[in-house]
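Title: Prediction job returns without error message
Component: structure pipeline
Severity: low
Priority: P3
Assignee: unassigned

Description:
Job completed but the reporter wants confirmation the result is attached to the right record. Sequence as submitted:
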Amino acid sequence: MADANASKDQQHPLYNRDRPLIDILLAQEATDYNLAELARLRTRYQGFPGARDIQQDLDKVLQQWGLSEAELFEKTRQLHNVGGIYKSRGKKEEQDWN
């Protein structure tokens, strides 16, 4: 009954913006910035009824980087406590956690 689930899946409003970012994460290493992006995207898509390819690829990135979700969130909490992870971007992306 996978088709029943697929027909109920929703298109995430930020899918088209996030998909290229996830492809970049899949191809790169776990820099501080990439860790923050991965945590932000995992939070955004957690429990979302759709975008299953994105959710699977976010899991794949975690696996490639050898991290559990708990380790990812711990590392990014430390990064955000120090501050500045998004300051050089020139945008207020730290407010974009939805």
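Comment from assignee: result matches the submitted record. The mean pLDDT is 86.
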